[in-house]
Amino acid sequence: MQAQEVILCSASAQSSNAGIGSITIHDIQTGATLASFKQTNAGSRSVAVLESKSLQGGVVLAAQTDKTVLNVYNFQKDQLALKIILPEKPSCLTLDKTGNFCAAGTAQGRIYLWETASGILFNCWDAHYRQVNVLRFTVDGAALLSGGDDSAVSVWSVSRLVNNESQNELPTPFCTLSDHTLPVTDIVCGIGLFPNCRVLTSSVDHSVKVWDLASKSLLSTFEFPSPIDSLAWDLTERFFFATCNEKGSIYKIHLFRQKTRFSGQIVEAVGGSGANDVMRIENDIIEAQKKRLIQVGQPIASIALSFASNILLVGTTEGSILMYDVPSHQHLRTITANKGLSITYIRTMLKPPDLIGHVNLDFRVGSSVDLKDTIPIKPIVPFQRMKDAKAREAHEVLIMTKNRALKPIDYSTFYESDEFLKEHAFFVQPITSPNAPESSVASLQSRVQDLEAEVVRLKSQLGQAKGVNDAMWDTVVHRLVGQGKGDPQEKDQPSRKRGRIGT
């Protein structure tokens, strides 16, 4: 089965007269709508997605902005699968990568942590003094990061939050990142196992900060002309995009730069000197370097990068999805299927194999053609509204076990061997291979010729310098030798003359 990248976005109504929003999936190449899930009105940072895997179907969680309701969808049907009543109206929502834990923040600064398979409320605590704006799990799900209106970013260890022995104790954060001065608007976690990872945070104080969780320290600060609302970080952490909703501007900031040194180009990191390392992105610099700035012309609600980081997706408050080429900043395409709504959430993902209307039965794990038997859905049950010690002690978790009678899936068939060998040969071919690109070979040959000419020139200059040095040496030596021989002769001449007179 060939993997296909798609766009998943959440469109919400800005007013009661605008109607009801939806969650839609679009083809990233054509912009066509592949599926749509109705009856939802999720706010910003209130949507969480678990992708479908080989043995389990994915789910979509959407917290409603005007209700204490959490809508649950799966990719196998376009209707609401489950409606969960929450204890408070959520202000943000997140799901870890495995879909085992769900966290929600509230306007009172409280955070709830549930186990999705059992619905048990593992912890509920006052994490911030004011509203919680954003929640993020690290890549490995070992830590939960929260940012709020109190300008603080707290890092919580999940193992401590779910520990049975500390349920009656107030959770303490692993660390608190408190260098912002105004409300935190977005958090992005980098690649790496906790705590060996880096974090980007943005704030209304016009700044974006880079943190290192291992040392619990601030690495760099980028100051912008306007407040920053959303962030999108390259998967390899080479650059990031920061949006300004007021001006409809997107700034591209490189975290590495090329520098000429010793007659060559080297790559060095930008910043990294700590709290005193502040890089200001001024308006005049932006105007002088247009390659850093993308002007959308509409208020921006959300942004995301594609898997290869070659396409930037921009969701606007007018319901448009704009696609830009990252290297050239050229506008590629506009999707207007959600016109009149606000694109509060956007991301890319692999096309679910169990997507309604696009089911691929070659992906099945059994012989049954029933979709539910083909790919079971991730189990999610209603969440508890209060802590229940008895239920926690006797809690049960639904786990899907493998059927040993079935043959294991041969994942090698998902990638054609001929195509794999062709791409492998392209990436590992030597520079002198006849199949190498002509432009790269020509540039290398030209570089070799330039270096050889420079070597010849340096040898010629070295020969001239050696000749001058030899001439100077010979002149000095002959002069000193001549002076040394002339002194005794001058001393002997008077004695010889006196000797002749005496005789």
Task: Describe the structure in your own words.
The structure is a single chain. By secondary structure, this protein is an alpha+beta fold. It has a domain of 351 residues: YVTN repeat-like/Quinoprotein amine dehydrogenase (Methylamine Dehydrogenase, Chain H), CATH 2.130.10.10. 19% of the residues lie in helices and 36% in strands. The protein contains 6 helices and 31 strands. The termini are far apart. The C terminus is likely disordered.
Strand content: 35-45%
The CATH top-level class label of the domain at 5-255 and 281-359 and 374-394: Mainly Beta
Unreliable stretches covering 5 or more consecutive residues: 364-369, 497-503
What would you say the CATH architecture of the domain at 5-255 and 281-359 and 374-394 is? 7 Propeller
**What do we call the CATH homologous superfamily of the domain at 5-255 and 281-359 and 374-394?**
YVTN repeat-like/Quinoprotein amine dehydrogenase
Tell me, what's the shape? elongated
Structural class: alpha+beta
Strands, count: 31
CATH topology of the domain at 5-255 and 281-359 and 374-394: Methylamine Dehydrogenase, Chain H
C-alpha Rg (nearest Å): 34 Å
- Spatial gap, N to C terminus: 125 Å
Q: What is the overall pLDDT average?
A: 84
Question: Considering DSSP H and I runs of 4 or more, what fraction of the residues is helical?
Answer: 10-25%
Largest beta sheet: strand ordering: 16-17-18-19-25
Helix run count: 6
Instruction: Profile the largest sheet.
Output: 5 strands, mixed
